[in-house]
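To: structure subgroup
Subject: Chain for Friday's discussion

All,

I'm putting the inputs and outputs inline so they're searchable in the archive.
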Amino acid sequence: MKRKPGKIGLCLISLLLLLTGIFPISDVKAGSSIEVRLSKYNFRIYDVEPGKVYSDSLTFYNDNDVDVYYYIAAANAWTAKNGGVAITTTSHDDMFPLISSITDERAALRDYIEVTDEMITVPANGNVVVPVTITAPEGFERGRIMGGLKIKQYDPTEPEQTGPINMESAVGLPISLFYGDGVETPDFSFVPSYINFTLSGDILSVGLKNDSTSYTYVENFRYRVEDMNGNEVFAGDPGSFYMTPYALIYYPVWWKGPRDVIADYKVFIEATVNGQLIKDEHVVTYDHEKYYSKVPFTTPILSSDVSDDGWYNEDVQVGFNAVDPNYEIFKTYYWLTGESTYRTYKEPFTVNQEGIQTVRYKSANVVGYSPNSWSSLQLKVDKTKPSTDIILHGDSGNQNNWYNSDITFNLNGTDALSGVKSTQYRINGGEWKDYSSDVLLSEEGEYAIDYRSKDKANNIEDYKTSVVFIDKTAPMLELSVDKDILRVPNKKFEEINVSTTTNDNFGVDYINLLSIKSSESELLSDESYVKDALINTEDKSFSLLADRDPRGEGRLYTITYEVEDFAGNKSRAETYVRVPKHPGPKNH
């Protein structure tokens, strides 16, 4: 029964190819390399029929805004017709591991691979499909033949690129032809782990080895680290993946144990391979200082002060100081967020972009010692002041910012980068207070509320001011008329003039004539007895009819005004004009 490898994720492919010497094209940064994506990272053909032609294709996807140029060539490897196989060396001409037979029967697979359009242009934000044709060599019945494609990016404008392309540093995509039972039972084992000591963190490398000619499925791979007393220090369960033939990989794990003591630890590892549980254990020694006595130390030097929350509110000048107790410093290297490769440090440089920038750095001494990994410095820059809004709650009046009830206000500070650290307020020029919850204002009067926020980079907002008034007392209104008695009921209209007097702590908004009512009519402001009166206005002059019902006791006019202040407080007052039952002297 044949066991064929299934699909694996790109991340795992990249890891396995990296550790076995075959790299995805997007991970190679040769010169001014620009990343592209490929439709596949290997070609595998099972149940191969000798002499049969197999057609496939490889698609280049370019997500960049510039054209990218590639050269493609066939690569070679060897395999046996029958019998066992053994791994040999690699060469520049044949990128892939040469699988050599114990017999003399070999096949140069490169001669059976045809790639059209060997020099291709991948257009900006476009793609190119490259046909690949593979003819299965005859005379083979069992085993696997390996070959592949060499792919190298080049710049047609560079003088050295106008001639033949040097493929020594090219990237490879493997091609495997499986004849008969090409996937054999793997010979799998664990190999001793070791520790890489780095400035940014130490790494335990757990070793796995596949000594067979076939792809091996490693299932439920897991590890556990204990001290010599049997206490677990840390553990992990990376999961399942495939290993290529003759692969040796070291799975990297961040060291989570103590870093300040020299000690031995037991590493327990296990996995299920082809249904069989395989276990191993061995001892590693953690000696952090032993490693650090050989490598140079690099210290970043920054020009600006950082806030308590780790943010800068101005441009940051970055320099480095490298020290080695044993050897002369050769060079210091660094690279910034978004850059595709590192730079050689020559002089301090400035980070002026707002946001979070990561600076990676390390140094090497003249004998070649350098930390295995990059140290990193995170620069968080926020040069923009925060902004604060005020929200007022209360019964508002006729005018903006006037209220006739208690007021509460809350403040909302915002900052797009570092975030708001604190918000403050003060009333009528008093002391600044830290804002934490709604603030109550209850006394009548005028309030000037100043408010501002500070972000985590110590940027302080220019304070804003909101002026509000509280007036909970209704205004007083007094009325009088120039004629309060119309003594002669001569059925003529007499002009009446009204005088008003108000009293309010903060002034009134308006005084309106609300109604004129006769005691002898159910109607208000009936045109039959009122003339030239503008109701709901500030009208203070109108005419009333000097008349009464001869059967009655006399007529009484009730004149009503309403006053309202700026906060919406209202009150009313009345004044009267009489037409008496018994006539008196003439109206005047």
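Points worth raising on Friday:
The first helix runs from residue 10 to 19.
The chain has five domains: 10-179, 188-290, 306-381, 387-470, 476-580.

D.
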